[in-house]
Write a structure and sequence with these properties.
CATH topology of the domain at 181-302: Pdz3 Domain
Radius of gyration: 52 Å
Shape: elongated
Largest sheet: 8 strands, mixed
Strand content: 15-25%
Number of strands: 15
Helix content: 25-40%
């Protein structure tokens, strides 16, 4: 039996021969290095180009489909910028007249004030048509309106058209409200005799203006200064039906003196207040003011004005009216006192309750 090594040796020999042949035929020949020195530049002659007339080709059309080109308009001869358009008249739209809604047919029955921010406050409103009562809070819808504010004696509603509506708890609260005085007319309280002379019914004026603070708020009074020094009181913004307009005042007027007393500091203003309070019937209140750098003098005479019936009210009737209003004010204050007692009253009630219902602790 022959040894198998001669087969392996033969195979290896064949593989070596094949590898050598592959290496020999697959090698890349490296080109020899050439000299790259520059040679003399030879100018290249331009060959003469053949000029072909294209128009002759089109004119010699075999099928007769060629058409002569029309002359194009000279664009440069045209205007560089177009003419502006003619102005069109501006159409101003007509202003829409505001549409006011009728007041809500509701009655405010009660108000519960829990906190100052109004989140827990509630009101009781009765529908006059259905005779049904319901409790509402801020943000609730009442008909086409939305409840936006709750006060101690009134509520404020916002209607669907944007107008505001105020509903009072009592009719007397509406009469005592400063906003009510601004809306109502003053022809029954103040009567103009001339451009600088007026008649004022003192009793009717006292009913409409409760105190000095309300008058200051209604006239929007502020201190006027000139070169850093106070010169009087300036009248602020006034409405057509306000008390200031009824008194002949205008926005921007500076009241300098009243009854000869300068209105430039707090001491003199208190003197003016006392002087006006001590005035009697048929006496004059002389007011000197500056309007557009012009000094004017207004005279206000205190006199009872004749009512619409044409008959003058007697002092007895006026006294009775004052007495009735005083009783109504006292009732309103008493109701507010009962619904909102002071801390001392609450402590006294708790002490009395402990004494009546409490018992001594057992030893």
């Amino acid at each position: 039996m022959r040894h198998p090594f001669w087969i392996i040796n033969s195979i290896l020999l064949v593989l070596v021969v094949l590898i050598l042949l592959f290496v020999y035929f697959s090698q890349v020949s490296i080109p020899e290095r050439e000299d790259i020195a520059p040679s003399l530049v030879v100018s290249r002659k331009k060959e003469k180009q053949l000029h072909v007339n294209i128009s002759k080709i089109y004119e010699a059309d075999l099928f007769g489909s060629y058409q002569m080109a029309t002359e194009q308009p000279d664009l440069l001869a045209q205007e560089a910028f177009p003419q502006p358009p003619e102005p069109q008249p501006t159409v101003i739209p007509e202003l829409l007249t505001p549409q006011f809604l009728d007041p809500l047919d509701v009655t405010l029955k009660g108000i519960f004030i829990i906190n100052n921010d109004g989140t827990k406050n509630r009101v009781i409103i009765s529908d006059n048509k259905t005779k049904k009562e319901a409790t509402h809070k801020i943000g609730d819808k009442i008909g086409d309106a939305q409840l936006i504010r709750i006060f101690s004696n009134k509520i404020m509603l916002l209607r669907s058209n944007g107008q505001q509506e105020v509903v009072y708890l009592r009719e007397q609260d509406a009469k005592f409200d400063a906003g009510y005085s601004m809306i109502d007319e003053w022809n029954l309280v103040i009567k103009q005799m001339s451009s600088t002379s007026f008649l004022i019914d003192p009793i009717a004026f006292a009913k409409r203006v409760q105190d000095l603070g309300q008058l200051i708020e209604m006239l929007h009074l502020i201190t006027a200064y000139k070169q850093g020094a106070s010169v009087g009181c300036r009248i602020g913004k006034l409405d057509e039906k306000s008390v200031g307009a009824s008194l002949g005042l205008q926005p921007g007027d500076i009241v300098t003196t009243i009854d000869g007393i300068q209105a430039d500091n707090m001491v003199n203003r208190l003197k003016i207040y006392q002087s006006v309070l001590n005035k009697k019937e048929n006496e004059l209140i002389v007011v000197q003011l500056l309007r557009n750098k012009e000094e004017l003098v207004f005279e206000y005479q205190l006199r009872d004005l004749v009512p619409e019936e044409g008959q003058k009210e007697t002092p007895q009737n006026q006294f009775l009216l004052q007495k009735i209003e005083g009783e109504e004010k006292r009732k309103i204050l008493q109701q507010k006192y009962e619904f909102a007692p002071t801390i001392q009253d609450i402590r006294n009630r708790e002490r009395l309750n402990m004494l009546q219902n409490g018992s001594m602790p057992q030893p």
